[in-house]
Design goal:
The protein is mostly helical. It has one domain. The protein has helices spanning 3-11, 15-36, 42-60, 66-81, 87-103, 110-137, 139-153, 163-194, 200-206, 226-242, 245-250, 255-292, 294-317, 323-340. Helix 4 runs antiparallel to helix 5. The longest helix has 38 residues, at 255-292. The protein is globular. The chain starts with a helix and ends with a helix.
Length: 342
């Protein structure tokens, strides 16, 4: 393995561009890879990596707006490399970038800001999942859950209970705990970066590793069809009609049918009508953005092969029987390799 070849462009690039390239690579490819190797809660790890990247960008510059600039570059690269990603994924990246810009406005309390950004990012992902579930199935889903669970427990628990509320609280609590632990870990990683820990010893160990590439990107051949687009539009119209009183009354006796039909209509309308329109709008915006920021965009894209090589090294060096320890070591080593290697 040729160390100079692997890291030459990385070493000669500003830290902000290096970290932006890492963030873009993780958004475009790392999620699918983590799912492929059966890492649970891959979305949490992606949110955490984004938080660390934003924190390092904030720590490396006092200029306002740098986090937003990096966020827009990440969104554009994500769209170029993974164009079939759902639109809400781009929204999530944008919200996290805006939150980062807000949390690091002062640049005086990097540790505190890093903690709260990570906490926000992980808890936001939980709220996003709950919101999607509620939009798909409506409030009837939660009511049906309460009725179903109360029927099961009424023999040994008198009265009625809001089990859906308990489920939501437990769910959010798990993400809250993950956010607190992630915030502490983010602070520790940034401390290592600011202390200037060198990655030379990691690269020396890497010379003994066999050549291996875990980042095998599968091409997704997707062809849009006009028929499906119009079907989605029809489903959207049906969804709007479904909120009219006379439509709701026909399903008053069959809540299960109402829940299922609502979900099917929303999914079809979203996938085959709204999503194509959003992607068309994004494509137009990205083409204009690429013209304005051609230099920065090309610089970040040119770093992606080196980022992939360094992540390969980090993944192999971080191997551990426990997946959580493996991922923790992988993230820490990756950041140190990309930021501090000279």
């Amino acid at each position: 393995m040729n160390e100079g070849t692997v890291t030459q462009k990385i070493s000669n690039s500003p830290v902000t561009l290096r970290i932006t390239a890492l963030w873009a690579f993780s958004e475009a490819f790392l999620g699918g890879i983590l799912h492929g190797i059966k890492i649970p809660f891959a979305g949490l790890f992606l949110a955490f990596i984004a938080s660390v990247c934003i924190t390092i960008i904030a720590a490396g510059t006092r200029k306002k707006g740098e986090i937003i600039k990096a966020t827009l570059l990440v969104i554009v690269i994500k769209f170029i490399l993974s164009p079939h990603t759902p639109p809400m994924a781009y929204v999530a990246v944008m919200i996290q970038g805006l939150a980062g810009e807000l949390f690091f406005l002062g640049r005086r309390t990097i540790k505190l800001s890093a903690f709260f950004l990570t906490l926000f990012s992980l808890v936001y992902s939980a709220f996003q999942h709950l919101l999607v579930l509620t939009i798909l199935f409506g409030n009837s889903w939660w009511k049906a859950t309460d009725i179903f669970l109360n029927k099961i427990t009424q023999t040994f628990l008198p009265g009625t209970h809001q089990y859906s509320l308990y489920i939501i609280i437990i769910y959010l609590s798990c993400y809250l705990i993950a956010g607190i632990l992630g915030g502490i870990m983010n602070i520790r990683i940034v401390q290592k970066v600011k202390a200037g820990e060198k990655a030379d010893s990691i690269l020396q160990m890497a010379e003994q590793l066999p050549a291996q590439n875990i980042f095998l990107v599968k091409k997704n051949h997707h062809k849009g069809k006009t028929v499906l687009f119009f079907m989605g539009g029809l489903m959207l119209l049906l969804l709007i009609i479904s909120y009219l009183p006379f439509f709701n009354s026909s399903f008053s006796k069959n809540k299960v049918a109402e829940i299922i039909l609502r979900a099917v209509i929303i999914l079809l309308a979203w996938n085959y009508f709204i999503t194509p329109l959003l992607k068309k709008w994004m494509q137009q915006w990205i083409e204009k953005y690429k013209e304005r920021k051609k230099g920065s965009l090309n610089q970040v894209i040119s770093l992606l092969p080196e980022v992939r090589s360094l992540l390969n090294i980090s993944w192999q060096l971080s191997k551990h029987p426990k997946k959580l320890v493996h991922i923790k070591g992988f993230i820490t080593n990756s950041i140190l390799l990309i930021v501090n290697h000279e």
